Amino acid sequence: MKNYVQKGENLTLPAPYALSSGDGALVGSIFGVAAGDAAIGAEVDLVTEGVFVLPKVALDAMAVGTPVYWDDAAKLVTITATGNTKIGVSVATAVNPSGTTSVRLNGAF
Q1: Residues of the chain above pLDDT 90, percent
Q2: pLDDT tens for residues 39-72?
Q3: Does residue 34 form part of some domain?
Q4: Which strands, in side-by-side order, build the sheet including 67-71?
Q5: CA distances, 18 to each of 23, 29, 50, 78, 82 (Å)
Q6: Nearby residues of 8 by Cβ (< 8 Å), 6 or more positions away
Q7: Residue 3 lies in a domain
Q8: 7 Cβ partners below 8 Å, 6+ apart?
Q9: Residue 59 sits in which domain range?
Q10: Within a domain: residue 73?
């Protein structure tokens, strides 16, 4: 197909802030996990699909299948939709308090 560009599982985008490999990043409404380190504005490969262990709001409890959102100010996964960007669903139980959850990213956002 002559208009095909790529699968889109990994996107090379400018880092919205300094990133270390494994950090979550929001570029507009595109969320991904950094595949490497990058300074702010530098190109970084963001993985937009798959399951990743990400930091979360400690007090948020999540069941398997709970929709999760990215709080870009705090750089944390949360269950709070207001003011945040939906990034996928929790695929593990995360209790209150805990610091991480496993998230299946939805690369369609």
Answers
A1: 93
A2: 999 999 999 999 999 999 999 999 999 999 999 9
A3: yes
A4: 50-55, 100-105, 85-90, 67-71, 76-78
A5: 9, 18, 22, 21, 25
A6: 48, 107
A7: no
A8: none
A9: 10-105
A10: yes
Residue whose token pair is 């299946």: 104
- Residue located via tokens 């970084």: 44
In a domain, 4, yes or no: no
Residue-wise burial string across 55-90, b where 16 or more C-beta atoms lie within 10 A, e elsewhere:
ebbeebbbeeebebbbbbeeebbbbeeeebeebbbb
What is the number of structural domains in the chain?
Answer: 1
Q: In Å, what is the CA distance from 17 to each residue of 1, 26, 41, 108?
A: 35, 9, 7, 22
Residue 107: per-residue pLDDT = 77
Instruction: Determine the Cα angle at 106 with ends 41 and 55, to 5°.
Output: 65
